Amino acid sequence: MHIEKLEYLVEVAKTGSISKAAQNLHVTISAVSQSISSLEEEWGVTVLKRNRTGAVPTAEGAMIIKKAAELLQKYDELKEAAQGYSELVQGRLRIATIPGPMLLLEQAVLDFKKKYPQVKIEIVEQGSQDIIDDVLNEKTDLGFIILHKNRLIEHLGLDHELLLRVKMVAATSIHSPLAFQKTITPEELKRQTVVLYNDDYVKWFMDDFQAKFGPAEIVYTTNNRALISRACQNHLAVTVGLNYSFIYEPISDTVILDFDFPQQSPVFLGVIQRKEHHSTAISRHFLNRIKHDISGLQHQL
Questions:
Q1: Which residue ranges does the record assign to the HTH lysR-type domain (predicted)?
Q2: 196 has pLDDT over 90
């Protein structure tokens, strides 16, 4: 029996479709179908009921597929152990991140690639919900997002780890009258021209702010940091964001202001993975590197 046959079986059970499983595994539908038939013949039991709408496990098949998934995880552990003995890290690492941590990840990825040139690394910038969806659908290995009590991910089949406690702050030009202050009140923010970076948590924060304190004059939301910088410098606009993002991607000639009102419950930069996905050596090595970098950043916040 080949390990690939078990992989085909588990993928069909996961997707509920032989054709979808074949697409995900980059093999032919015939290869998947014949492999499963071969297993059923070898075991003398029907594991899948096939119909026009898809394929679902039989009662016996569900138990067998669970065991097959456990066996595949053990096989992955075996490969990792062998890989560890050879002192060689290789394979693929797929990373997705919200915009803020990109510079933090950029240096880590470059250094990681130099140390482990055999690893193929993919990194994309996305919104938080897209990252969550891609991690759940196994299109991404590690997802870096903002975690807070209003984002309930524990019940989505995701493991998460809190990496860095962060908070929302405001930034404006050094020529603004606000530059002589250390804080900004809700009433002061409402009187300012506000420009925002297009980020899920920033949007949620400002929606919550306006629900509590009244409307703010938000001129636009953009992914263009240069546009935000020019608005602050040339028009004394105020922007709002997470404090660590201003450290790693500072806007020139600006000052940072704390909010003079109670903020929400603790907010963290965190990393998510699939709950049933066994963490690979590559993921662990990379996360250790990120944690090392973040430990140096913590004292600046």
A1: 1-58
A2: yes
